Automatic annotation (TrEMBL):
Name used for this protein in its record: Putative nucleic acid-binding protein
Every Replication protein A 70 kDa DNA-binding subunit B/D first OB fold domain range: 39-136
Keyword set, alphabetical order: Signal
Native organism: Medicago truncatula
Signal peptide: 1-26
SUPFAM superfamilies: Nucleic acid-binding proteins
Pfam family, one: DUF223
PANTHER family hit by this protein: OS03G0429900 PROTEIN
InterPro entries referenced in this protein's UniProt entry, alphabetically: NA-bd_OB-fold, RFA1B/D_OB_1st
Top-level taxon of the source organism: Eukaryota
Length: 256
């Protein structure tokens, strides 16, 4: 009989504790269920975690061919004007090509953050973002991010060596002279245009356009009937120093 009484007391205490805990959980559950992850800015991301959520605009997007395989890369920018490079591996390229467009804003979530050790960096951000199977982009053009002016690299800074060999730059100038052109493409020959740009300070910069960009310039030059100067804007150009202190731009984007 005593054992039955003791068991009854134990059950009463257990049930009392159970309902106290249940009530406390019920009060806490609703806030947790409706709580959403806060937005962060690009400057806030780091390698300590992968669960981020940001509002960004796709500034530029392009295809990279390496070892016969294609993957995508893009530069995103947030409302504060901070940018970062995003690498989309081959496995996700076809899918993202259908849903991601340039000059469009998105809510970007869940991506891998790594130190940016790429040889060619279109962004000087110390981190790069890697698209994964859990990465999502939603809310196209729901958010408003204004366009930011491009930051062109002054020719004067280039000729005195104020540039990084691993960073890609934007430059703009007028075509002063057209040099050697490889206009016939073959097995061992790539389309090539060498030209000299000048800026408003009359500083010269030697540039080389390859393949699609060379073809685009050749067509424009052949079709152009106007006598005025030709303004050339190069985006994401690679600066290289030659033995005679000439500087060449190899680029990803070309606008005439």
């Amino acid at each position: 009989m005593n054992n039955i009484v003791k068991f009854g007391y134990v059950m009463i205490i257990f049930l009392s504790l159970f309902f106290v805990v249940a009530d406390a959980y019920a009060e806490m559950a609703t806030p947790f269920e409706v709580k959403t992850r806060p937005f962060v800015f690009i400057k806030d991301i780091n390698v300590k975690k992968d669960f981020w959520k940001m509002v960004v605009k796709v500034r530029d997007k392009w295809t990279v061919v390496k070892d016969g395989r294609e993957h995508s890369e893009m530069v995103i920018v947030d409302a504060k004007g901070t940018d970062a490079q995003v690498v989309i591996p081959t496995a996700y390229k076809a899918e993202t090509d259908k849903m991601i467009e340039e000059n469009t804003t998105y809510t970007l979530s869940n991506f891998l953050v790594l130190t940016n050790d790429l040889f060619f960096k279109p962004s000087d951000n110390k981190y790069k973002l890697i698209w994964t199977g859990g990465t999502t982009t939603v809310d196209p053009n729901v958010h408003d991010i204004p366009d930011n002016d491009l930051k062109f690299k002054p020719f004067a800074e280039i000729v005195v060596g104020k540039w990084r060999s691993d960073l890609l730059y934007h430059v703009i100038g007028y075509v002063h002279e057209i040099g050697y052109c490889q206009v016939n493409q073959g097995v061992s020959k790539k389309l090539q245009v060498n030209l000299t740009l000048k800026d408003i300070s009359d500083i010269s910069l030697n540039c080389t356009l390859w393949e699609d960009y060379a073809a685009k310039f050749i067509k424009f030059n052949n079709d152009n009937k106007e006598s005025g100067p030709v303004i050339l804007m190069l985006k994401y150009g690679k600066i290289m120093e030659e033995a005679c202190f000439l500087f060449y731009i190899f680029l990803l984007y070309c606008y005439i």
